[in-house]
Amino acid sequence: GGGDIQDINTAVAGGKNAVENNFLDSTGNVQAPVADYIGRVGEVTKELQLTCNSECTDGQYLKAMQDAGLVPRDPMIPPDVGRALFELIPIIGDYATIRTAIQNDDYETILAVVSQAHRVRAAAALGKIGLSMGKSIDSMPSIIKSSIVASGRVPRVLQSGGNTLNQSTANALNKYFDQNINKREWGRALESLKKDNNIRNDHHGRILDNGDYINSNGNVIGNIGDYLK
């Protein structure tokens, strides 16, 4: 009867869902090898950026991760933190760890396992997710507070277009990241960012003084600081 057909449809849908979500267990923890999980996050990122020509919204990022079974359909996740999650998950290893840490105001646990090169990005992403979940800025470590304050200002454009990174741009990036490296190294970092995001090397984006590289629509493609060797 109709009930049997409905049961079959439900079973098929359930089986499909299980295949799609075999990276996670029922509580949202990663059950697949972490390397496989992180590799799939990278694949989904590149697939999505090709689909929307690197003009993706936070909502698109979140939906792509949920559709791929990489993040549970958790009502606690606001749609505007999709990109922040995409930045954190490859660094941390899974969403459940991030969610639990934020719920417990335990940001230091996550920051402790983040390499120095990724700490600024991770702190900014944690702050954004925490605020979206209704957490108080007062409960956050100073590195996260400062990243929230920095993200609250309008970053200055250091350079628009051009295939060569200017010396003045390198100087400003050195100041922001507390580095002392030549413009050629910054140029290589920018090339790596473009390659990682499937962007042609002659793509004319804008470099901001916080290291963000943005496209013509003002969407952040990545941060140059994450690509320093």
List the helices and strands and how they pair.
Elements: H1 2-20, H2 34-51, H3 58-67, H4 82-92, H5 95-103, H6 107-112, H7 119-132, H8 142-152, E1 157-160, H9 167-177, H10 183-196, E2 206-208, E3 212-214, E4 220-223
Antiparallel strand pairs: 1-2, 2-3, 3-4
Helix pairs in contact: 2-3, 3-4, 4-7, 7-8
Task: Please describe what this structure looks like.
With 229 residues, the chain is of the alpha+beta class. 54% of the residues lie in helices and 6% in strands. It is built from ten helices and four strands. A four-stranded antiparallel sheet has the order 1-2-3-4, covered by helices on one side.
Mean pLDDT: 77
Helical content band: 40-55%
The major pleated sheet works out as: 4 strands, antiparallel
Envelope shape: globular
User: How many strand segments?
Assistant: 4
Radius of gyration: 19 Å
**What is the count of DSSP helices, taking H or I runs of 4+ residues?**
10
Order of helical and strand elements:
HHHHHHHHEHHEEE
Q: Order the strands across the largest sheet as they lie in space.
A: 1-2-3-4
Helical/strand content category = alpha+beta
